[in-house]
Design goal:
globular; about 15% strand; five-stranded mixed β-sheet; alpha/beta; about 450 residues; binds NADPH dihydro-nicotinamide-adenine-dinucleotide phosphate
Length: about 450
């Protein structure tokens, strides 16, 4: 059995009931095989065994009182996966589906993504099975305060810097930051995605979606093409989806879909983003309402249907495993040429295989959505230096980072004989720096 296969077998044996983590580890380790074989010293140093084991997992109780005076209890998690190249960095997810397997898969992916940005940040992830949907503002605040009352002792501006993710936006970050500051009596960059009045960075809100479109644009350019006139299908209608839509439209594409976990809207005239922002960011409503407000738009129940819409470019921006083999085949049949993952692991392994075998340019999440965490690292730099950069300054840095990521994943794929395979390229390019640092640190 090869080194990679033996480590994968060990993961499954030692971590049963963690399918998402197995899936992420399988994708990453298989694609690293060429780099591992070229460096036999890694096996002797137990490098992969150490890489797949989080440095620390914190699991805790989050008690809070709802508006009816009833005590509620949720599970809280922080997985500090790897700090070889910098402090742990990665978002917090509040969603009822959250469990240890999902947080581990996200934390594991985060190691390579953060490395790819070229910035000094390690990998971590956290969250809770708390469902923010339908909760009052007061309930959200009490939950966030309770969550931070435990989390604060495990994080710090030079130790672990969480950020937002699904269900955690500016409001939640604000409540958690307020509680951290109150307990620790220090105003430091311990969370990113902060509001602009208390240490946040301009362009952080837009960064993941913008970055996704910047890297897709780089891929198009490499083929002598542009976004102008392209039809784009986007899933999700949260932070990533909204700003991916905005940038795609700015660069001349027509975005025709958006979705949420109930269904999707199709607007053949191109999505009116002001209406989406009003529904999702202001009213916190459902995407269904878009069709009621915009003439000519259609709403369809079931979020999977979004992939039956004909498009040149597909940008899955909702959640893991939302694009499966069947949907990938429909997209290919309908002529999709580029897929950029705004979400983390939205495409199943079988779906990815369909795209790659049909020569669709496939940009995996760890490269394509790295703009968010890269800009979080820029927020950390501004916090440490007590600086505040302009929107244009941050956006220009983001654009440069995304162009660099594309260059590096392209080069790594070519170096190991996998030209055009950006899954292999991203994993190897991200892995090399982390492996190097881990080797330098000795057996720790
Ligand atoms: P938001 O909470 O702002 O939006 C999530 C969107 O996805 C919503 O439209 C939501 O619909 C939909 N969604 C969530 N869960 C499901 C589900 N199980 N099935 C179908 N749709 C679902 O999150 P973000 O936009 O921040 O995150 C989206 C993805 O991007 C996630 O995978 C996240 O990890 C990834 N990401 C986010 C970054 C960021 O900076 N925010 C950075 C890098 C990656 P509904 O309202 O119905 O739940």
């Amino acid at each position: 059995m090869s080194y990679v296969e033996s480590v994968l077998a060990r993961i499954k044996e030692q971590n049963p009931n963690e399918p998402e983590f197995h899936q992420a580890a399988t994708e990453v380790l298989h694609s690293l095989e060429a780099a591992i074989n070229a460096n036999p010293q890694y096996e002797k140093a137990g490098l992969l065994e150490r890489l797949v084991e989080p440095e620390r997992i914190v699991m805790f109780r989050v008690p809070w009182v709802d508006d009816q005076g009833k005590v509620q209890v949720n599970k809280g998690y922080r997985v500090q996966f790897n700090s070889a190249i910098g402090p742990y960095k990665g978002g917090l997810r509040f969603h009822p589906s959250v469990n240890l397997s999902i947080i581990k898969f996200l934390g594991f992916e985060q190691i390579f993504k953060n490395s790819l940005t070229g910035l000094p940040i390690g990998g971590g992830k956290g969250g809770s099975n708390f469902d923010p949907k339908g909760k009052s503002d007061g309930e959200i605040m009490r939950f966030c305060q309770s969550f931070m009352t435990e989390l604060y002792r495990h994080i710090g501006a030079d130790t672990d810097v969480p950020a937002g993710d699904i269900g955690v936006g500016a409001r939640e970050i604000g409540y958690m930051f307020g509680q951290y500051k109150r307990i620790r009596n220090e105003h430091v960059g311990v969370l990113t995605g902060r509001g602009l009045s208390y240490g946040g960075s301009l362009a952080r809100k837009e960064a993941t979606g913008f970055g996704l479109v910047y890297i897709v644009d780089e891929a198009l350019k490499s083929k002598g093409d542009t976004l102008v006139g392209k039809t784009v299908a986007i899933s999700g209608s949260g932070n990533v989806a909204i700003y991916a839509c905005q940038k795609a439209q700015q660069l001349g594409a027509k975005v025709v879909t958006m979705s949420d976990s109930n269904g999707y809207v199709y607007d053949k005239n191109g999505i009116d983003l002001d209406v989406v922002k009003q529904i999702k960011e202001v009213e916190r409503g459902r995407i269904k309402e878009y069709a009621a407000r915009v003439k000519g738009a259609e709403y369809h129940e079931g979020c999977k249907g979004v992939w039956t819409v004909k498009c040149d470019i597909a940008l899955p921006c909702a959640t893991q495993n939302e694009l499966d083999e069947e949907s990938a085949k429909i997209l290919v049949k309908n002529g999709v040429k580029y897929v950029g993952e705004g979400a983390n692991m939205p495409t199943t392994l079988a779906g990815t295989e369909v795209f790659q075998s049909n020569k669709v340019v496939f940009l995996p999440g760890k490269a394509a959505n790295a703009g968010g965490v890269a800009t979080s690292a820029l927020e950390m730099a501004q916090s440490s230096g007590r600086l505040f950069w302009s929107f244009e300054e941050v956006d220009a840095k983001l654009k440069g980072i995304m162009a660099n990521i594309f260059k590096n994943i392209d080069a790594a794929a070519k170096k190991y004989g996998f030209e055009g395979n950006y899954v292999v390229g991203a994993n190897i390019a991200g892995f090399e720096k982390v492996a190097d640092a881990m080797m330098a640190h000795g057996i720790v």
